[in-house]
Amino acid sequence: MRLFIGIPLSPTVAAELAALRGRLERPGDNLRWSAPESWHITLQFLGSSSDPQYDCVLAALGAIHTTPVPVHLEAPGFFQRAGVFHVSVSTTPELLALQRAVLAATVGCGFEPEDRPYSPHITLARNRGREDGIRALKPRLGPAPELAGFIATELLLYESHLGPQGSRYEVRAHFPLGPADSPPKG
């Protein structure tokens, strides 16, 4: 199974991003738009995982005890080389501490942290195939919208299922952020 750990979006933020998508999406725009139910902020991509690693990750994430984390969204932008339209997330000390706690928890399960710096974001669309739909999207964006922040109150362990229409994500477990007596759900 292909696993990753992320933060789900608040309903308010998801609604704002859905409205932005509704304003920008065009038929035949050569973009593959992400489904709102797949929007999240990745903390760590684990990749292919064995059943023992899955069990280890469940226990390791359940042992993380931290307070809820404020999440601040920045302006929508583009990863031009990757052909991605996204909303950046501020790399606050609280978010970095949570991400580092996740990395430290999963090392004992056989997962290595990525070499590149952490760049939290929410992917909204990707170029479809070799077509460059991002180039045509840029002028439609207009002035950067103000986006609400939110308080992250849980981590989710996701399983990624690859398919012809892109990836589909299944939530495998919930891990509340809060006091040590908050048990995982799922």
Explain how this protein is built.
By secondary structure, the protein is an alpha+beta fold. The protein has a single domain, classed as Alpha-Beta Complex (Cyclic Phosphodiesterase, Chain: A), CATH 3.90.1140.10. The protein is 27% helix and 35% strand. The protein contains four helices and ten strands. The protein has a four-stranded antiparallel sheet with strand order 3-1-9-10, covered by helices on one side. A four-stranded antiparallel sheet has the order 2-7-6-5. The longest helix is centred in the middle third of the chain and has 15 residues, at 93-107. The mean pLDDT is 91.
Number of strands: 10
Q: Helix proportion of residues, in percent?
A: 25-40%
Secondary-structure element order, N to C: EHEEHEEEHEHEEE
Q: What share of residues are in beta strands?
A: 35-45%
CATH topology: Cyclic Phosphodiesterase, Chain: A
Supply Rg.
17 Å
CATH superfamily: Cyclic phosphodiesterase
Brief sketch in words of this structure:
This protein has 186 residues and is of the alpha+beta class. 27% of the residues lie in helices and 35% in strands.
Sum up the structure in keywords.
10 strands; four-stranded antiparallel beta sheet; Cyclic Phosphodiesterase, Chain: A; alpha+beta; 186 residues; 27% helix
Layout of helices and strands, plus pairs?
Layout (H helix, E strand, L loop, with lengths): L1 E7 L2 H14 L6 E3 L6 E9 L2 H12 L6 E3 L1 E7 L4 E6 L3 H15 L13 E7 L5 H9 L8 E3 L1 E10 L2 E11 L10
